[in-house]
Specification:
Layout lengths: L9 H27 L4 H8 L5 E7 L4 E6 L4 E7 L4 E6 L5 E6 L4 E6 L4 E7 L3 E6 L5 E6 L4 E6 L4 E7 L4 E6 L6 E5 L4 E6 L4 E7 L4 E6 L6 E5 L4 E6 L4 E7 L15 E3 L5 E5 L5 E6 L4 E7 L4 E6 L5 E6 L4 E6 L4 E7 L4 E8 L1
Antiparallel strand pairs: 1-2, 1-28, 2-3, 4-5, 5-6, 6-7, 8-9, 9-10, 10-11, 12-13, 13-14, 14-15, 16-17, 17-18, 18-19, 20-21, 21-22, 22-23, 24-25, 25-26, 26-27
Length: about 350
């Protein structure tokens, strides 16, 4: 049976057309004012373009799970199981998958971000941390038990190479050009420089005791390595393979043994670094050029790893003992919210929604 479609009243059609024209006129006038400088262009751009939305994935080492956080709302959206003792985590370049180190499963789990289901499990002895190449084709995994860095094809999920390094490797970093991979070994107290194409170690640099994390500056001119027991961050020239300086941290009221630097993150412009100070319950704000600590931000208990939203608006600090994530406003340099996650949170990775 056909449904009769009644013609719209002329007055209603005219009113709708007039409203659309009025909206277009207002938009055009607003754009014109922005072009002439009457209205700042930045305001026009912010009004015309919706704010970017990002998702954070937090590994819960004791909870055997990953918690998902909407960074715009600063709220958790779900927590799902992944395997035993999840620690290091990265998101694929296209955002379709997350890769999670499962220490007690001796594997790297591949998770579909849409379904939160595991699609693959890659054998990898006691993986602690991992990093990916700039083009997203390779994963570099620190295997703590067998003293090797494993190279995995991110598309096929197959192991292609294993490279011997020092005792108990943990941190992994990749240079911005992808030509250098660095692994830090906790017991050997070294940063091992690896040529990923030649598949071999090309240099070993001695650093302070128990190096846990490594990060290149955005321009690739420096490598920063945090030493948990040594209490310092070593600054290394990656071309000369030499330590050029050390950054120390003085937290009023705390003995040096409680100041244990771990996670490091740089803003995109390379001017500011953030360093997690473990049981000191602080995040240090460091001026990259001067290597001076500018501020100490009080966060949750035993802050471990860090992640910046892609727009550098927020820094997320993962607090292992208090089971929460602190949101830090980067512009204001202050904590604005604490979000509860799973049990003993460890790592964090960021993706666009």
């Amino acid at each position: 049976m056909q449904t009769e479609i009644k013609p719209q009243a002329a007055g209603a059609r005219s009113g709708a057309r007039n409203r659309r024209l009025t909206s277009r006129v207002r938009a055009n006038r607003f754009a014109a004012l922005a072009m002439t400088g009457v209205i700042p262009a930045a305001i026009f751009a912010n009004c015309a373009t919706p704010a970017a939305a990002f998702t954070a994935y937090v590994t819960n080492e004791k909870g055997d799970s990953v918690t998902v956080i909407d960074t715009d709302k600063m709220e958790t959206t779900k927590t799902f199981p992944v395997g035993k003792r999840p620690r290091g985590i990265v998101v694929s370049k296209d955002g379709a998958e997350i890769f999670v180190c499962l220490g007690d499963d001796d594997a790297v789990a591949v998770i579909d971000t849409k379904t939160a289901k595991r699609t693959a499990k890659i054998a990898s002895p006691d993986p602690e941390q991992l990093a990916q190449s700039p083009d997203g084709t390779r994963l570099y995994v620190a295997n703590e038990d067998d003293n090797r860095v494993t190279i995995i094809d991110a598309q096929t999920h197959k192991t292609t190479t294993q490279i011997p390094v020092g005792v108990e490797p943990e941190g992994v970093a990749v240079s911005p050009d992808g030509k250098t991979v660095v692994s830090t070994s906790e017991t050997t107290n070294m940063a091992h420089f690896i040529d990923p194409d030649a598949k071999k170690t090309v240099a070993n640099v001695l650093v302070a005791a128990r190096p846990r994390y490594a990060q290149f500056t955005p321009d690739g001119r420096e490598l920063w390595v945090s030493s948990e027991v040594g209490g310092v961050v070593s600054v290394i020239d990656p071309d000369k393979h030499a330590v050029t300086g050390k950054i120390t941290f003085d937290v009023p009221g705390l003995v040096n043994e409680h100041v244990q630097p771990v996670g490091i993150r740089f803003t995109k412009d390379g001017k500011t670094a953030f360093v997690a100070l473990g049981p000191a319950n602080r995040v240090a704000v460091v001026d990259v050029q001067s290597k001076k600590v500018q501020k100490l931000l009080l966060v949750g208990q035993r802050v471990w790893q860090l992640a910046l939203t892609p727009d550098d608006k927020y820094l997320l600090a993962v607090n292992g003992v208090s089971n929460d994530v602190s949101f830090i406003d980067v512009a204001a340099l202050k904590v604005v919210k604490s979000v509860q996650v799973g049990q003993l949170p460890w790592g964090v990775a960021m993706a666009r929604q």
